[in-house]
Amino acid sequence: MPLDQSFVGRSYPPIAPYEVGREKIREFAEAVGDANPAYTDPDAAKALGHPDVIAPPTFVFAIAFRAAGQVIEDPQLGLDYSRVVHGDQKFAYSRPVRAGDRLTVTSTIESIKSMAGNDILDVRGEVHDESGEHVVTTMIKLVARAAEEG
Amino acid sequence: MAAKISYDSVETGTELPAQSFPVTRATLVQYAGASGDFNPIHWNEKFAREVGLPDVIAHGMFTMAEAIRVVTDWAGDPGAVVDYGVRFTKPVVVPNDDTGALIEVSGKVAARDDEARTVRVDLTAMSAGQKVLGMARATVRLA
């Protein structure tokens, strides 16, 4: 059964703040093999005009995806996560994520589409820092493939 | 933000230095730990085959993280990236050997915005002869 269109526009409560640590950024940068000193050396980051080390552009996905879990696991929405693949991913930054940030994410169902039996769900995540300033908007497109017949 | 590339030095069609990123099973285990994405399709061959995949595949977000390095290494300041989006079109299949897979990424300036002093870079990411990302675009603010 296709997902209920009336869920479009529904927002979920913001997650508890995620505190971005220097060592977590370092761990992530090492995992993607990126030696850019802006990720690990506060002086190098400052030389570029940042108050502390910054995170690679896709670092914030893990935080946004955790927040999107509220949507994915909403029993009323009824998404079958065993059939879900990640279709598209977008980020729109006001500024880079940096060490010391305490980030909250508010997830909203941006759109629900049904195509050839697949459910396509766009979840927008608005990421703000402790002072309420916007940091980044994330857009996660999830595709739940049609259930097999039989 | 302090990109090292001057806006005025860049034209539509300017090619960014291409890069190749190797990915092995060990890379995927390390990325799983760092990102918190422990989906077994990224490390368990038996599970991957059971759900219809040819073998273990890389995290889409890993490929996305590698592709933007062509832009951030070029611009100098990763904080100069204004937006970034991709479509996951084909999986990066990672065999269980010492070589693994290779993600080859190139980028080209596709549009300029004089007012914002930003450029849009269109990225191409290939693995095993297949395009693994679609609509891969980043906007970056230049000096």
TrEMBL record, chain A:
One of its GO terms (molecular function) is (3R)-hydroxyacyl-[acyl-carrier-protein] dehydratase activity. InterPro entries: FAS1-like_DH_region, HadA-like, HotDog_dom_sf, UPF0336/Enoyl-CoA_hydratase. Residues 6-137 form the FAS1-like dehydratase domain. One of its GO terms (biological process) is fatty acid biosynthetic process. CDD domains: R_hydratase_like (cd03441). It comes from the Bacteria. HAMAP family: UPF0336. Belongs to the UPF0336 family. This is UPF0336 protein G5C51_34185.
Automatic annotation (TrEMBL), chain B:
It comes from the Bacteria. Residues 14-124 form the MaoC-like domain. GO terms for cellular component: fatty acid synthase complex. GO terms for molecular function: fatty acid synthase activity. GO terms for biological process: fatty acid biosynthetic process. InterPro entries: Fatty_acid_synthase, HotDog_dom_sf, MaoC-like_dom. Belongs to the enoyl-CoA hydratase/isomerase family. This is MaoC family dehydratase. It comes from Streptomyces coryli.
